Amino acid sequence: MSTEQPTVAEAAPPPTAAAVAPTPSDSAAVHIRAPRQYKPAQAAESSSSPPLEWLHRSWTVTHSTLKRDLVAYQSKGSTKVKTVSGADTAVAAGGGDLTAWNWRGSGLLKPISCPWEMIGWGERVDAEGRTEKWAVTWFAKTLFTEEGLDVYTDRREGMSEELEGLILAALATVGVEPLQQLVAKNMQKVAIDLAAKPEEAKA
């Protein structure tokens, strides 16, 4: 999640001010809200968003409801890493709310766009004292993809098991029946190949 989509599709309650990142003392729970499409009032009440510098990093997709919704991915049995590039634009003018975005592809994919939202984000400190950043995004249905959800971590090797369990449990009780069914039926763990180098690959 940067101004370009993440390389490799990833707890604390959201802070009360957009300019303040989560702190280790806030890591008691994972909070995930419903997308604006389903519960606009809840989205407005939970409008706090991470600072832009918090988003500017490489993220690893650990779970997804789409089998091929990866910006950088490697097919099983193949050594080639393929990439899809595009740009994200914040929906809110002035960049005050960084939870609602619109993605547009580049090159041959430029006609394709997709609105998406960050419906959960935060940081969690594990038993070893390491901080793990996480995020959950929802994306709308497009001409080529169904509506879906992605889970991210800033750890290249993947998400810790404890945080994974908390996030999946929160998604299962988000309060939107279509999304809860989507999680139950389609949410899959993404295979992570640490030997892959997507930054050296081309589409």
Automatic annotation (TrEMBL):
Sequence segments annotated as region (Disordered): 1-28
Domain of life: Eukaryota
Name of the protein described by the UniProt record: Uncharacterized protein
